[in-house]
Amino acid sequence: MNSSEGKLKSSSSELDLDRPNIEDYLPSGSSIQEPHGKLRLRDLLDISPALTEAAGAIVDDSFTRCFKSNPPEPWNWNVYLFPLWCCGVVFRYLILFPMRALVLTIGWIIFLSCFIPVHFLLKGNDNLRKKMERALVELICSFFVASWTGVVKYHGPRPSMRPKQVFVANHTSMIDFIILEQMTAFAVIMQKHPGWVGLLQSTILESVGCIWFNRSEAKDREIVTRKLREHSQGADNNPLLIFPEGTCVNNQYSVMFKKGAFELGCTVCPIAIKYNKIFVDAFWNSRKQSFTMHLLQLMTSWAVVCDVWYLEPQNLRPGETPIEFAERDIISVRAGLKKVPWDGYLKYSRPSPKHRERKQQSFAESVLRGLELEEK
Length: 376
Fold this sequence. Notes:
The chain has 13 helices and 9 strands. It is an alpha/beta fold.
């Protein structure tokens, strides 16, 4: 086998992350054998199953990979390509970025000069005010997409305002909302954010009926669930958009969907979003990067390229539970994502003590079974 074939096989094995492959990393003699004859103390205290499981979590950690940004492979590795790369850096930062910043500034000036009078002067005419605010929010989102030189292809029929329907989409970054919002003024459910993003949430985005929550407060869950039910029943409300993963995933995987969007008794309209990483990785790792720096990264890239698919509406089947409804992999199949059975909230919390206690109890029971065999 030559070196290129070896690299190819190695990369293909790294892509197959969900296949249990710990056996490939352990010696052949490490497997547990059934004891023959008299049981010895070392057999009772054998911790190889626990070590095997721990090593498997390290070797085959598909959870951590869901939230890992994979840097592009360097291409400016020789004397011929490096000058071209330098020219590209100068062009992106000194020419493209100022032009994009100017476009975004003009967009904000137009938006605020129209939004403020509409919001305060048309309070007596709610229907006209909501219609104009909806159009202005779509406008500012279009300016944001233009500031990234966004190349977005929309597939399928455009969403319409109908009661008893909810739209669900996979989640890579907060720009998912902006890309979808420039076509349709969705009311989105989103985590509360600090800073200027939080200011936008509490002022401008509330005009389209957006709902905010704080995942650290248990009371918010009941309030948000009630608001979702009320919003989905309104015929004049903006279409409701939910990201059921609950956190940003790196657009290579799809983590477990929360069941909340699937137990509202509404028609569920899936939306699949897939980014092309040829120019920039659109994944936002909120634990390592502020949203301001994320926007600067997008504005100094060549372009943001993505596809959006509005998929066929789905309804709860007879005898199907909301959890089974949420586990349908329509979005992951369409976007080419690998579905993994992880709860995305684990990124924000430590493993439950109950989970550790179950592992400890399982190990203790195996030792007790060994002692009973020795007594016999």
